[in-house]
Amino acid sequence: MDHLQKRLIVLRSWLGAKEYFTALKAMEFARTHHTGTRKDGVTPEFSHQTFIALYLKTVSKYLLFPEETFVVSFCHDLMEDHSRSHGEILNRFGERSAKATEILSKKYQGIAKTMEYYYQEVAGNPISSVDKGADRIHNIQSMHGAFTKEKQDEYIEETEKFVLPMIKTAKRNFPEQEPVYENIKLILISQIELIKLK
């Protein structure tokens, strides 16, 4: 049994025990779309979504909207990368999840958001802000060997210029989630410091 299958078993069991049935449906729906490999050409694409969800499991008691945050962890790339519509996400998973998924889409139907607007919008949503932070944690952890040195440097620059300030703003906007934002911030800063040591 591979790592992805083990993660799916853990998530199905935990989400089911929490009665997060909408999140379970989102996981299975997203899994039918993320069928390829990541940029390293080896790792299953859907391992990214399962990593985010497993991270969220560790901080779930601090989330304002836990089930919806899990839904969006699975669906966050569907509008941008797989052309799923806002209406489809809305009909399947509800308004809160559809809005957060739309916010996390940097480009949709050919329209791209500026970085400033994108991160401002993310910081103003309690679900998107957490999922974006968790998404960035995994992207930085898994970029070695998958991205060129230049792309890695761009990711670090974007994290320092936009992601960390977004986390700070979101913490002010949603103080109930402060432990989550602090955890994300510390992990990201530690990752960046380690990469810069190389």
Structural account:
There is one protein chain. This protein has 198 residues and is mainly α. The protein has one domain: Hypothetical protein af1432. It is 72% helix and 2% strand. It has eleven helices and two strands; from the N terminus they run H-H-H-H-H-H-H-E-E-H-H-H-H. The chain has a two-stranded antiparallel sheet. A hairpin with a 2-residue loop joins strand 1 and strand 2. Helix 8 packs parallel to helix 10 and helix 9 runs antiparallel to helix 10. The chain is globular, with a radius of gyration of 16 Å. The mean pLDDT is 92.
Provide key terms for this protein:
Hypothetical protein af1432, mainly alpha, 198 residues, globular
List SSEs in N-to-C order: HHHHHHHEEHHHH
Pick out the low-confidence regions. Answer: none
Got a strand count?
A: 2
| Widest sheet: strand ordering | 1-2
Q: How many structural units, i.e. domains?
A: 1
CATH homologous superfamily identity: Hypothetical protein af1432
The largest sheet is: 2 strands, antiparallel
Radius of gyration: 16 Å
Q: Judging from the principal axes of the Cα atoms, what is the shape?
A: globular
Assembly classification: single chain
Number of helices: 11
In the CATH scheme, the class would be Mainly Alpha
CATH architecture identity: Orthogonal Bundle
Rounded to the nearest angstrom, the distance between the terminal CA atoms is 34 Å
